[in-house]
User: Which sequence fits this backbone?
């Protein structure tokens, strides 16, 4: 027997239609937009990205050109933030440093995420010997001190470009995200829809790409954003100790490294406070976005 239910109700001439259900991604987006800190972080990131994109139009001078007649000039209409030890314009270096630092952070995050996705999905999906081999390699990488490994590789290569620097960071930071994604895939492996896909003869590649990855998109996005913040801090820290992207390429870390002399720290705060504030605001913004995405994709985990 069929029962037809009409859900359209007419109240005083007004037709009420049933409310359209939202997809999980739409619900996550709605929860994200309700997070004020996440929106603040998103706003800040948009500003930094726009500064990086339009750096040639914002900067007043070439950030790599030295002028020894204007070493450590105070802020003026010509040099908004003064100049550094080589007479280069600090404001222009700050603006172009935004582009370099964000590019390094984003590309290193992509490389790390790709390595973590491949190894984490293989370990979580196949388990057994494949999982054991990948996890032992991960444990081996985690036992080696990160800073020692990076400094050794950079010292061997001697000359480091932006591309090589990104590869070095990605090569040394993939274990953490691999372990996280492996745990996510292990929790999905015994789900009914995965067992159903196996029962109808779907290939391993199709199961991973069509079932595992879409259902793990939340943890992937959250860890990607937080990894980008980590990459920016790593780049700045290595540049500060002289093992990052070499001069005269402007980065925030290079600017702080230039200004770490006591005389500069006390008499020329405009040389190091702006890049330090830029690093702080960028990392905070990315962390706010990451926390907002985590709460959006996993509302039950929100405290």
Assistant:
């Amino acid at each position: 027997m069929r029962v037809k239910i009409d859900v359209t109700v007419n109240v005083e001439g007004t037709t009420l239609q049933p409310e359209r259900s939202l997809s999980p991604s739409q619900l996550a987006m709605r929860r994200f937009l309700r997070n004020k800190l996440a929106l603040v972080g998103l706003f800040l990131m948009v500003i930094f990205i726009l500064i990086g994109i339009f750096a040639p139009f914002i900067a007043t001078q070439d950030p790599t050109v030295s002028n020894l007649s204007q070493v450590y000039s105070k802020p003026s209409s010509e040099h908004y933030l003064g100049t550094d030890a080589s007479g280069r314009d600090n404001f222009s270096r700050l603006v172009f440093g935004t582009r370099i630092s964000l590019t390094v952070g984003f590309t290193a995050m992509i490389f790390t995420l790709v390595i973590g996705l491949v190894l984490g999905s293989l370990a979580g999906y196949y388990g057994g010997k494949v999982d054991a081999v990948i996890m032992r390699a991960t444990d081996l990488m985690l036992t080696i001190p990160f800073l020692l490994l990076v400094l050794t590789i950079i010292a061997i290569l001697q000359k480091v470009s932006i591309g090589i620097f990104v590869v070095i960071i990605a090569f040394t930071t993939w274990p953490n995200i691999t372990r996280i994604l492996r745990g996510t895939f292990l929790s999905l492996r015994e789900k009914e829809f995965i067992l159903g896909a196996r029962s109808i003869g779907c290939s391993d590649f199709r199961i991973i790409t069509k079932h595992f990855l879409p259902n793990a998109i939340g943890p992937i996005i959250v860890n990607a954003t937080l990894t980008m913040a980590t990459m920016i801090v790593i780049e700045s820290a290595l540049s500060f100790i002289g093992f990052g992207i070499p001069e005269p390429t402007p980065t925030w870390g290079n600017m702080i490294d230039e200004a770490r002399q006591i005389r500069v720290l006390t008499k020329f705060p405009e040389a190091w406070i702006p890049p330090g504030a830029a690093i702080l605001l960028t990392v905070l913004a990315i962390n706010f976005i990451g926390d907002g995405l985590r709460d959006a994709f996993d509302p039950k985990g929100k405290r």
